[in-house]
Specification:
Structural class: alpha+beta
Oligomer: single chain
C-alpha cells in the first residue's frame, strides 16, 4: 500500500464519517410530520396549563386558609381561565424546513468538518509517519523481533524513518519486553542515553526476573549517573543478587558504586567476595584476579584521599523543608573565597538528605580539574569556603527559587564543617 492509497483511504473514511454525522444531525427534520400543512407546536400550551393548575391550587389554599374570601376566589379563578383561553388562540405553528435548507446542511457539514481537520494543525508529521511505515514498517518489525540483526542498506537511507517506525511498532506491542529491549539498543547506538534508560525501565517492569535486562538496566543507569548507584539501580542489583548471589556483573557494579559513594569498607567486601568466587572456578583466572587486585589498591588510595578531605554536614532549615521537591538536586562545593571554579564539588540527588540532614565527604576525588585540587589549595594556603545549594532545575548555576546557605569559611587544616541551607534565592 502506497502513501497515496493510504491518504486516499483516510480521506474517504473521514468524509463518510462526516456525512453520517450530518445525516444524524438532520434526521429529526427528515421525520417531520407531513399530515398537516401547518403543524402546531403544543409545547407552550402545555406549559400554560401547568402554570394554571399551580395558580389554581395556590388560590384554593389561600381560600381554605382564610386569606381570601369566596368572592375573591371566584374572580381570580375566572381571570385565570380567560388567560388560558387567550393563550390557546395565540399558539404559533412550527415551520418545517424546506428541501433547500436540508441540502445546505447536508453539504456544508462534511465540507466544514474536512476543512477544520485540515486547517486546525499541521498534518505533515502524520503523513511522514505513514510514509515511514509503508516503506520500512516490516524492516522495523523484523529488527524488533530478532528476525534480522541488521537493516538492509536501503532501509537506513533515512534513519529518522526507521526510528519512527520502530518506536511506533514498540508502542503497538507495549507488553513485549523484547521489543523494548531492542529499542533501547537502538537508542544506545545513537547515544540517546535518557531514551535508552526509559525503554530499559519499561522492559524491566515487564520482565523483572530477566537477568540480562536487569543487569543491562543497572549498568546503563550506573554509568549514566556518573558512576553512582542511585536508589533504583541499587534495588535492581540487590534483586539480581538475591536470586543469583554469584552474579559477577552485579557484584562488580556494587563494588564500584560503593567506592564511588565513599563506602570503602563495603566496596572492599564486594571485591573480596568477587575475587573468592572467581578463584574457586577451574581454569586460569590470573588476569581477572590481577584486575581485582588493582581495583582493591585503587579503593585503598581513594580511602586515603578521602580521609584528607572535608566532611560537610548539610542541614536544611525546617521552614524551607516544604519547598524541597523530590526531583531537586543538591550541590556541595569547596572554592576560593575570592571566587573561581571549585576545588571539589559534588552533585547529588535530593534523596541523600534524610530528615533534613546529609553528611557529604569532599576531597581530591571530587576535583573538577586535575590541576585544581583541594590538596593543592591547602598547600598554597588558599582561604576556602564551603557552599551548599538545592537546585530545582539541576543546573550548576544558581537560579531564582533555589535554596541556599551562606558560604562557610574554613581553615586549611579543618576537616569538618556544618552548612545550613536557610534562604531562598530571589
Amino acid at each position: 500500500m502506497t502513501i497515496f492509497s493510504t491518504v486516499g483511504l483516510f480521506i474517504a473514511l473521514s468524509l463518510l464519517v462526516a456525512l453520517l454525522l450530518g445525516v444524524i444531525t438532520i434526521k429529526p427534520w427528515l421525520r417531520a410530520p407531513r399530515s398537516h400543512s401547518m403543524p402546531v407546536d403544543n409545547q407552550l400550551l402545555d406549559i400554560n396549563v401547568a402554570v394554571f393548575r399551580e395558580r389554581l391550587a395556590e388560590l384554593k389554599t389561600d381560600k381554605d386558609s382564610g386569606i381570601i374570601d369566596d368572592h375573591h376566589y371566584q374572580n381570580q379563578k375566572l381571570e385565570l381561565e380567560r388567560q388560558l383561553l387567550d393563550a390557546q388562540r395565540e399558539v404559533s405553528p412550527m415551520v418545517t424546513p424546506g428541501i433547500k435548507n436540508r441540502l445546505i446542511i447536508m453539504v456544508w457539514v462534511p465540507v466544514l468538518t474536512a476543512m477544520a481537520y485540515l486547517m486546525v494543525g499541521d498534518r505533515t508529521p502524520v503523513f511522514e509517519l505513514w510514509a515511514a511505515e509503508d516503506k520500512v514498517g516490516q524492516v522495523a518489525d523484523d529488527l524488533l523481533t530478532g528476525r534480522i540483526d541488521q537493516p538492509p542498506a536501503w532501509a537506513i537511507e533515512d534513519g529518522n524513518q526507521l526510528i519512527s517506525a520502530m518506536q511506533t511498532n514498540v508502542y503497538r506491542h507495549a507488553s513485549d519486553y523484547n521489543r523494548w529491549m531492542r529499542l533501547s539498543e537502538l537508542f544506545l547506538s545513537l547515544e540517546a542515553t535518557d531514551s535508552a534508560l526509559e525503554a530499559l525501565s519499561r522492559a524491566y517492569r515487564l520482565s523483572p526476573d530477566n537477568e540480562e535486562i536487569a543487569t543491562t538496566y543497572a549498568q546503563i543507569s550506573f554509568f549514566a549517573n556518573k558512576g553512582q548507584l542511585d536508589a533504583n539501580s541499587r534495588r535492581v542489583l540487590e534483586n539480581i543478587l538475591a536470586t543469583n548471589p554469584e552474579h559477577e556483573g552485579a557484584q562488580m557494579l556494587m563494588a564500584m558504586g560503593e567506592a564511588r559513594a565513599s563506602n570503602f569498607d563495603q566496596a572492599q567486601g564486594w571485591i573480596k567476595r568477587l575475587r573468592d568466587s572467581i578463584a574457586a572456578k577451574p581454569g586460569d583466572h590470573t588476569q581477572a584476579l590481577s584486575s581485582l587486585d588493582e581495583l582493591s589498591a585503587n579503593v585503598v588510595m581513594q580511602q586515603q584521599q578521602a580521609s584528607e578531605g572535608v566532611e560537610v554536614t548539610v542541614k536544611i532549615n525546617a521552614s524551607l523543608l516544604p519547598l524541597v521537591k523530590a526531583d531537586d538536586t543538591l550541590f556541595v562545593a569547596i572554592r576560593d573565597v575570592k571566587g573561581g571554579p571549585p576545588f571539589a564539588a559534588k552533585r547529588l540527588p535530593i534523596s541523600n538528605i534524610k530528615q533534613g540532614e546529609a553528611v557529604i565527604s569532599l576531597s581530591d576525588l571530587d576535583a573538577m580539574m586535575p590541576e585544581r585540587t583541594l590538596g593543592s589549595a591547602r598547600s598554597d594556603k588558599v582561604q576556602l569556603a564551603v557552599i551548599a545549594r538545592i537546585s530545582h532545575s539541576g543546573n550548576a548555576t544558581a537560579e531564582s527559587g533555589d535554596l541556599s546557605g551562606n558560604p562557610v569559611v574554613i581553615s586549611a587544616e579543618q576537616n569538618q564543617v556544618n552548612v545550613e541551607i536557610n534562604q531562598q534565592v530571589p
